[in-house]
Amino acid sequence: MATWKTLLLQDSASPLMEQLSFFHDHTLMILMIITVLVGQLMLTLFFNKFSHRLLLEGQLIEVVWTILPALTLIFIALPSLRLIYIIDEVNNPMITIKSIGHQWYWSYEYSDFKNIEFDSYMIPTNSMNNYNFRLLDVDNRVVLPYESQIRLIVTATDVIHSWTIPALGVKIDATPGRLNQISFSTNRTGLFYGQCSEICGANHSFMPIVIESISPKYFIKWIAKTLES
Predict the structure, then answer these.
(1) 3 state DSSP class of 10
(2) Angle at 86 between CA 160 and CA 20, to 5 degrees
(3) Which residue of 7, 15, 121, 194 sits 20 to 30 Å from the alpha carbon of 22, by its own alpha carbon?
(4) Residues 146, 186 contacting (CB under 8 angstroms)
């Protein structure tokens, strides 16, 4: 979860977010090299007194500074395309969950288990406990087993929402009349917080998402307990 001291990306909790973090570092390194190179050239131009009154053209340098940016863009584009295809891939999901966006809360359906359904509302400030996070905690969390492939199907009933969990590298639009899907998995236990990242109305800031990642053994117990109740 991001705090007020968080300057970089959150610690990744899924293989997908790890790949996104690697791509971020890769792109940032290229940008740093470009920034240092251009800065050094500009300082050199400002402070040297060299002149060449017969210099009219330089075809070689023009070829070089045309080809180098093109190669740089290729080095950025290839990992980016690879990531786009990885994000869209759905690999034999063990569990399918449907998430429906409303103004302004989420509802979830576990269709693999006799269609477990519940709504997830933000906990109001006057009902919070000491361990709750303001504007981020919900009354019903999405419980998932870690190291299991999850397929999330997302839609909405009214306006466009966006189901986003930064620590998992998941962001998918919830569009009325359309089903979008994404596949992900968590590689550790914990609580992972997110919010709707699409401006969807007056209470857009008050429809958080909380995923509780637990072991498969305790997930089966939670399913059994939920079905009994």
Answers:
(1) coil
(2) 80
(3) 194
(4) yes
The pTM of this model reads 0.82
Cα–Cα dist 149/184, whole Å:
6
| The pair of three-digit structure tokens given for residue 102, joined into one six-digit string | 């409303």
Reduce the secondary structure of 151-205 to three states and give it as a string. EEEEEECCCCEEEEEHHHCEEEEECECCCEEEEECCCCCEEEEEEECCCCCCCHH
Name the amino acid, one letter, at 200: C
Paired tokens of 87: 């994000």
Cβ(108)–Cβ(95) under 8 Å? no
Q: Going from the first residue of the chain to its last (229 residues), give the mean pLDDT of each consecutive group of 10, the final group possibly shorter.
A: 74 88 93 94 87 81 91 93 88 91 92 88 85 87 92 93 91 92 91 89 88 92 87
Report how far residue 26's alpha carbon sits from residue 19's, in angstroms, rounded to the nearest whole number: 10
Question: How far is Cα 49 from Cα 51, in angstroms, rounded to an integer?
Answer: 7
Instruction: Pick the closest to residue 174 from 122, 111, 104, 87 (CA basis).
Output: 104
The count of other CB atoms within 10 Å of the CB of residue 197 is 15
Which domains are present in the chain? 15-46+59-88 (no CATH), 95-228 (2.60.40.420)
Report helix, strand and coil shares of the chain as percent, to nearest 5.
35, 25, 35
